[in-house]
Structure formats: C-alpha cells, structure tokens
Sequence to fold (219 residues):
Amino acid sequence: MRASDRAYAALREDIIEWRLRPGTLLAEVEQSERLGVSRTPLREALGRLTSEGLTTAASGRGVVVTDISLEDIDELFELRETLEGRAAALAAERGDPRHFLQLHRELLAAPALLSGDDPARHGYYRLVERLDAAIDAAISNAYMAQAMGSLRVHLVRIRRLAADDTARLTAAASEHAVIAEAIAARNPRLAQAATTVHLHRSLSHVKATHTPHEKERHG
Fold:
C-alpha cells in the first residue's frame, strides 16, 4: 500500500470513529510523525479527505476536521432517503434472495453483538456494511452505488453518534432485518417503505439526542 493510501486510511478511520474530533487541526509535522509518512504523501491524503468533505482548509491554520451540524444531518438524510429507498427497491427486483435471507437471519441475531463489548459492536457495524455492500452489488447501477458510497462516508460518522445507545442500535438492527427480509421476498415497495421508516427513526434519534460537538464535550 502506498504511503499516501496508508495515511488516508488511518486519518479517515480516526475521523469517522471520532478519535479526531471536529475542529482538530491536522498539523503536517505532527501527523507525519504519528503516521510514519513523509509530508508529501500526507498532503495527498489530506487532499483526498478534503475532497470528501471530512476535512477543510482553515484560513491561516491549515487543515481541520469538519463539523457535522444538525442542518448538515437534515440535508444528508434528504439525499439518503432518495438514494437508499430507491436502491432497496431495485435490490428487491434484481438481487439474489438467498443472500439477503442470510443477512436477515444474521441481523435478527445482532442484538447479541450489541450487548457485548466494543469489538462485538464493531461486528454489528461490519454486518450493516455487508448489507450496504449487498444492496450496492444487487442494484447493478455503478453511478448510484458511487453516489451512495460518497454519502456513507459522512453517514458512518453520524451512525457512531449512537454508539453508546444500545436501545437505538437494537431497534436499528431490527429495522435493517426488515429491509433485508423485504428484499429477500422480492417486494420492492416494502423494501423502500422499510428503508424510509428506518431513516426516519434514525434521523429523529440523532436530532433528539445530539447537538454539534457533543462528542467533543463528552467524549
């Protein structure tokens, strides 16, 4: 793996997991030493992160981690409902029912992961990522999959805001199971409706329980 790719992957994960919080200055010398790369590949990595909206240039300061405001969350979920609802419907029409039936079974068992420690919870996140990947593959639409991939970079950050809320994560697992079941049943309308319900509940939870920089204050 190239040094710039390695730096990009490490910084991206740190931002998504809130280890690097909004407003954090990513000083070139400090980050180069921390990541074990020279400043040229680090600059390349920071450029990629900025193009994705995870970092931004701050006048006179350098590059900082971007914040996620409630207004940003509203806009992201508007786009998410449009893209993910349609994608779920297409997956129901075009996907392999057996694959989604297996995901449905695993999602029904997901609450056991959520009652465990952090590594177990990461097992749940990986399961959700597998559902996302299965839908992307099933829709057979490279442009839509690319658009959803760009969107999910920011959605993962938002999803982590609920990392300490077992009740919400358990409910979300059930909602994901319903989506997978509807796709497996080849029911596009139900798959889209189940996705809409899940997104509505997720948005309501985020807006009701979090304000900008809450992770920074309480993390």
